[in-house]
Amino acid sequence: MATVETSPDLAPLAERADAPATLPALTAGGLTWRPATADDAAALLDLRNTTAEADAEPYRETLEELTELFDAPWRRFEDDSILGFDADGALRAYGHVETLPGDSRTLRAFLFGGVHPSRRGEGIGRELFAWQVARARQVLAASGKELPARIGVFAEDDGPAAKLRLYERAGLEPRRFYSDLRRDLRDLEAEPLPEVTLDGSLRLVPFSADLDEATRLAHNDAFRDHWGSEPNTREQWTGGRTGFAPQWSRLVVDDAPDVQALLADEHTDDETAAALRAGEPLVVGYAMNELYTEDFEVRGYSFGYTAVLGTRRAYRGRKAGLAALLASMRAFAADGMEYACLDVDTANPSGAHGLYAHLGYTKTHGSRLLSIEL
C-alpha cells in the first residue's frame, strides 16, 4: 500500500471542505429520489447512453460495464449516489460521487451525472449538481486524510455549453486538457510503424496474469510525477476490466535488473523495493489495451484503445514504453482494427505528444477536467 503523504501547511481538510450538515433538497421536476443499487444497472445504462448520444459523446457503455461499477468494494452507492424517477417509474436523472482508495497525494472526489434530454431545462441538473458538490464536500471532510483535495468533473470540449456553464457557476475551473488521438493502421506498408530494438536485458513479452501485479507497480512508478495521477491499489488495478484486452497488451521486463542500484535509488517505492528483494519480475514498460466494440458504430471505425502506457522512471530513454506501444499497434492491425486510439494529457511531463505525433497519431477530439481545489 502506498504511503499517505500529509500536508502540514494546509488547514484541516474538514475546514477546507466546508461540508454542509445536510444535503440540499431535490425538488425540481417532481422526481422521486433514492440511492442507486445493482438492480438499477440496466436502467442506468439506458439513461447514460441516451445522454451520451444526445451530447454527441464518442463512446457508449455496456451492461457489463455498469454491473461492474457495483462490484467495486470501495464504492458506497447507498451514500454517494442518487437516482431520480418520474411518476411512471422511468429513470430520468442520476448523480454519483466517486472517491478512490489509493489516493495518497491529493484526495479526489469525481462527480458523474446526467439528466435525460427530455427533462432538461427544468432545473433538475442544477439541483442535482449542487447535491453532488455538497456530498463531495462531506466525503472529503470525513476522509481522515490530511491532504490537498479536489472536486472534479470531466467534460467533452464540444459538449453542451450549458453543462460547462453549470460547472463554472458552481465554482469549478478548467484545470487540465486532454486530447483523444488516433493512428491509421489500414495500410502499414504505405505508413509503416518504426522498428525498435531493446537494449541490455530488456525483453518484450505479451501480458500474462503472473505479471499483472508487477505491471501495477510499474504503473504507479511511471505516473508518480504526472499531474492528477494517484497510486492504484490492487483492487483498483484489477477492477473495471470489462473492456480489457490482454491479447493486445504488451509488457517489457528487465531480466537482469541492477537490484542494488534500484534499492539505493530514493525514488524506488516501498512496494517495488519489497518485490525486488523477493526476486519477483520487474516490469519496466507496459501498454495495457482495451476493446470497445460498442463504440465502433459511434466513431465510424474499428479500433484498439491503449488505456495506460508508461515506463518506469529509472528506465526512461530506453524505449521500453515505445516498444510496448508499437507491439500493441501491430496486434491491433493483425486483428483487423482500422485505428489505434489513446488519449493524453496535453501537459504530459514525459513529452508523449511529440512521440505520438512522430508515430502518426492525430487528434480527433478533446476533453477537460474542471475542479475545485481545496
UniProtKB/TrEMBL annotation:
UniProt keyword annotation of Transferase present: yes
Domain N-acetyltransferase: 31-194
Organism domain of life: Bacteria
SUPFAM superfamilies: Acyl-CoA N-acyltransferases (Nat) (SSF55729)
GO MF annotation: an example: acyltransferase activity, transferring groups other than amino-acyl groups
Keywords, alphabetical: Transferase
InterPro entries found in the cross-reference section: Acyl_CoA_acyltransferase, GNAT_dom
Ranges in a coiled coil: none
Record keyword Transferase present: yes
PANTHER family, alphabetized: N-ACETYLTRANSFERASE
Protein name per UniProt: GNAT family N-acetyltransferase
Source organism of the structure: Isoptericola sediminis
Source lineage: Bacteria, Bacillati, Actinomycetota, Actinomycetes, Micrococcales
